[in-house]
Design goal:
The chain contains two helices and no strands. With 52 residues, the chain is mostly helical. The relative contact order is 0.15.
Length: 52
């Protein structure tokens, strides 16, 4: 149903969680770009190393 990143874009349009209504949610419809996950992991490790 969604291309990579579209679920985030759609959900980010809501002004608050109370205004967000998701019907018939199917987790398999949300696609994640593996390169993005690797970059997120890299940034988290960098952040964690700066905090210690």
């Amino acid at each position: 149903m969604f291309a990579n990143g579209q679920a985030y874009v759609a959900m980010s349009r809501a002004k608050s969680w109370q205004n967000l209504e998701i019907r018939s949610f199917d987790p398999n419809a949300i696609k994640v770009d593996n390169d993005m996950l690797l970059e997120l992991d890299r940034l988290q490790k960098k952040y964690d190393s700066l905090q210690s």
